């Protein structure tokens, strides 16, 4: 009889989500659109950069530097300024992200073998992009310096480095972004679907009926837990197929390890959703609560910035973030062929988070019964 009751509750939860046209649209349309859009748009690469150059040098090397910047695929429009005021206006109006000023003695110093400076003015309002552009310009300047007479004379004493990128040889950004989106969008869908579960019952007036039904407390929790996990596994499967066949991201690891850890990941996400849902009285409160957790979870997961770069007092907070652990697993399975031991090390915290959140949700349900 217990399995029959549990099966009926699971079917009822699935029908409550899938029979609603708006619910179906939310579950199917936006996640696919997000995967396609974010895979191309959400990138930290800096391309199509506009720069302005103030060339005070009339020699060969100043013009050579301009041609090299113009020939770089990173830069789109190269404006030539006649005076310093044009540079200030271009930066102030965000018409360009960087300005390069070539001094009047640039070519003369190069021919004489004297060190010379190249002034680069960057728009600090776009700090990350400015740092990357500064790196691009430094590389162009270093390459030019190596071909000057002084650079050729010192060539024998210069140590050259040859970079080799493991796991992503061509630094294809989608190889990094798509696995991250698999975990992030699964968090979004799983959290919202679960958070709305109890809140929807309360708004419809069926929550009290559910609590006085023959269903036991653990059966209610399991019945509310399994449908979001099934929906999450469906989305993860769609994303994996898209990653492999659409974006051509290599799948070097074991799908068995990926799906095994995904069950614990979705369990921890559903546990957090049930906890939020148990605290909420309306669906609006549940959605707000889900987003209140989701935004910090994205920022503190290592998705965009390494956790090691965060302040020391902030890093311990990331230990309760399930996205942190699953990102390591999904990127490791796709790009690295992560071993079983590492998957287990990342899955244990997911199991602990699921246990704690589900226990907290059960405690809130008991209080409702009292």
TrEMBL record:
It is a multi-pass membrane protein. It is found in: Cell membrane. It comes from the Bacteria. GO terms for cellular component: plasma membrane. Coiled coil: none annotated. Keywords: Cell membrane, Membrane, Transmembrane, Transmembrane helix, Transport. Residues 134-368 form the ABC transmembrane type-2 domain. The chain crosses the membrane at residues 175-199, 220-244, 256-279, 286-307, 347-365. It holds the Pfam family ABC2_membrane_3. InterPro entries: ABC-2_transporter_component, ABC2_TM, ABC2_TM_bact-type. GO terms for molecular function: ABC-type transporter activity. The keyword Cytoplasm does not apply. Belongs to the ABC-2 integral membrane protein family. PANTHER family: MEMBRANE COMPONENT OF ABC TRANSPORTER YHHJ-RELATED, MULTIDRUG ABC TRANSPORTER PERMEASE YBHR-RELATED. This is Probable ABC transporter, permease protein.
């Amino acid at each position: 009889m217990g399995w029959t009751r549990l099966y009926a509750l699971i079917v009822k939860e699935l029908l409550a989500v899938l029979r609603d046209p708006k619910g179906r649209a939310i579950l199917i349309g936006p996640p696919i659109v997000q995967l396609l859009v974010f895979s191309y748009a959400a990138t930290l690469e800096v391309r199509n950069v506009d720069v302005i150059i103030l060339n005070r040098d009339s020699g060969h090397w100043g013009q050579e530097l301009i041609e090299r910047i113009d020939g770089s695929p990173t830069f789109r429009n190269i404006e030539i300024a006649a005076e310093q005021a044009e540079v200030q206006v271009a930066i102030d109006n965000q018409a360009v992200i960087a300005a390069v000023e070539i001094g009047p003695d640039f070519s003369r110093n190069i021919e004489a073998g004297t060190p010379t400076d190249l002034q680069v003015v960057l728009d600090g309002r776009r700090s990350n992009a400015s740092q990357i552009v500064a790196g691009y310009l430094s590389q162009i300047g270093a390459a030019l310096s190596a071909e000057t007479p002084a650079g050729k004379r010192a060539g024998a004493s210069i140590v050259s480095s040859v970079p080799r990128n493991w796991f992503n040889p061509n630094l294809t950004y989608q190889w990094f972004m798509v696995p991250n989106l698999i975990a992030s969008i699964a968090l979004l869908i799983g959290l919202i679907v679960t958070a709305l579960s109890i809140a929807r019952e309360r708004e419809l007036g069926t929550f009290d009926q559910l609590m006085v039904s023959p269903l036991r407390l653990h059966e209610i929790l399991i019945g509310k837990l399994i449908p979001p996990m099934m929906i999450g596994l469906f989305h993860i499967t769609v994303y994996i197929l898209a990653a492999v066949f659409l974006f051509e991201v290599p799948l070097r690891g074991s799908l068995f390890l990926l799906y095994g850890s995904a069950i614990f990941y979705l369990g921890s996400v559903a546990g957090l959703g049930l906890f939020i849902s148990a605290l909420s009285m309306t669906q609006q409160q549940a959605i707000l609560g889900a987003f209140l957790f989701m935004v910090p979870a994205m920022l503190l997961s290592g998705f965009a910035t390494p956790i090691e770069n965060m302040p020391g007092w902030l890093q311990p907070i990331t230990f309760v973030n399930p996205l942190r652990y699953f990102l390591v697993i999904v990127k490791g399975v796709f790009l690295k062929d992560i071993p079983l031991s590492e998957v287990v090390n990342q899955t244990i915290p997911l199991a602990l988070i699921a246990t704690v959140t589900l226990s907290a949700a059960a405690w809130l349900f008991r209080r409702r019964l009292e």
